[in-house]
Amino acid sequence: xxxxxxxxxxxxxxxxxxxxxxxxAAAVVAAGMTVxxxxxxxxxxxxxxxxSNTTPTASATKKPTSATPDxxxxxxxxxxxxxxxEQQTGRPQQWGSEEPFVYNPAQKNFTAAQQ
Length: 115
Known about the structure:
Elements: H1 12-39, E1 42-47, E2 50-56, H2 69-89
Antiparallel strand pairs: 1-2
């Protein structure tokens, strides 16, 4: 008996896509939970009957919530380097391609007063 190849029906593809997306989302959540569990800073103490008693420690430095002047300077220098590269080669910039770049913190194109 010869078996012919069947093409997926109109309802099979969306169901398979939904299942695949759910599996990927679950994997991302699981990976995020294990990474955050590994990177959390805490001190632990042991006592009888208790395996660990963790107390979170305060972060030494607060992460910036907006761009600092140094971040803006780096972005300006990176943009200038890309434009210079395009001028030299005549090849337009391609989104997502990273050219080698060295940030020079002594060169200031932006100050905090300009924010």
